[in-house]
Amino acid sequence: GATPCAGAAAMAVSHRYDLIVTDVDGLCSEDDGANAAPAQPHARVRRRVAQALLAAAVGTGFASAALRGPTALRGSLAGDAASPTSVNAAAVFGEALELATGASAGCQGPCPLNGVKVDCSALVGWAALSMFADRRDPCMEAYTFALVNCTPCWGCRFRDMACLEPPPLEMPWASEVTAAQGGAGSPEASEMDARQAEAWQPEAWPPEAWPPEASESAQLAFAPPEPEQVVASGPYVNHYDPANPLRIRVAPERARNYFLVIGDWGKSGGAGPCQVAVAEKMKRYIARQKAIGHNLLFVASVGDNFYWTGATPEAWDEQWASAYGVWDPTSALHQVPWLSVMGNHDYGNSDPYALCPGQKPLRYIEGQPYGSQQFNADRNPLRPDHGCDDPATVAREPARCAQNTSFYWLPDYSYHYELPEANLEVIALDTNADSVGEFGGDASGHGEAFAVCGGREVVQAHFRSVDRAAERLLAKRAMEGTASTVVILQHYPQRCKRDVFERALPEWRRGQVRTLCVYGHVHEQRCDGRDAAGACRDVLSGGGGGCCAPEINSAGFTAVHLDDAGGFFADVESDDVTLPRGTCAWTGSVPDKPERLFIRKG
Q: CA 352 to CA 257: how far, in whole Å?
């Protein structure tokens, strides 16, 4: 396994990520077999082997997430390369890649990632701990991350990286070779491997599809599976478009832009007096800001959007549109974008398959099932205006399509949204993994959902995977983002995960980015933390009026105004954004009993 072709083949057939590799005649030269290493491989062979190796790297996780789902590799490997009986594919990968590319910078070579030179070995160690800790082989994932993103790291062998040694990756058939048969490397094992390798017949692809010939850095060719036929496995992957799909308009002067934050707002059974009072105050605030030339970007919703136990098809009108006038052209909130996350009351018996989408998927995206009735319409056909992006549907069903929910944005459990013109990025996270017992409020609100999912353990496992995906997203955005203001949007106090984001920041962003954590869950308007300059950077905004307790002490919302210096100012508690303290009160707030909600006068 010392030659480029042998190493590439060994890597491609021995890793565990369902790549489909095919042979193309003439890839390797005749003397490039398993037992010979030509001093200077032909450039064309070298390029193709490097492409095959990088394709294997893509399949192992980092770039497969970017490609959004399982991939089928149109590979090109040939020769007597599949005969090694048992290999540490990670080591072979590094050695073969060095041979294939001629890279010689070593592990100490600088990687110009996001404009900063990072030591390749240190990058791998950090990525293994921060980005891929939940994977079966975090070191290999981190190694391939470095190779895919940083050409100078190609010369670093895996065993020289500053990372814990991963378990060996075996050939697919190696588990059938037992110690009684002599073990790996024995004549018996070699005979079995040769027999198995000869019998292995990968799916055929058109030869002309691979390899690309445009340039030395040609794009790899992939054939994604049909999502309804192939179900993704492995870590959860968030699928979404971050590049302002809602076409949010940004005012040219940064200081003229602002956004609102609201949480815990969607009262069960329809908007009540407190929710309506907060909504009306929001509209008056927007009108005043518009009169002085300020531009509302969006409403950030921090969860508990649909009490008590999740969204239903009827809830869009009853709990959202009717209160905020989102379908009323005369309302200040008409078709204003909402960037949302979910809280514990968005999960429960009313929307059970949000807790376990694989049990009864509404849609698949890249093979991954989706089951929430609150997600965007492309993965949730139960939205009232599903399919209304088609003009024929609008013409055929105008009344239904008038219920436009497309600007209520919730594409996945976690996502990010970029507004580069405002130097602003929102990172929306699902942080419910530690609160599954609070879904729907208590057992009465989630018991049926847990039962159809197969038990609490199934739900817990799903949200652990969702939580790890959220942390990977944070680290990735820290490394790749450029915004001076980053809003971390999630439901709970003390779960902002700012530390995950800040640890992953490259050197050039440290001290250049300000993070604002916004959340709800507690039905209060309050600043929980300030930066060195005294500006509020931890915002509790759970006073939306949908719930609860004996009294909503400070119902309201938060207004966050951007400034021309790249920062922001958050108004959380002023009279402009809150109702008089103590004016909203509840009794009888148990989910299975009717609520009596009123506004105290005076």
A: 38
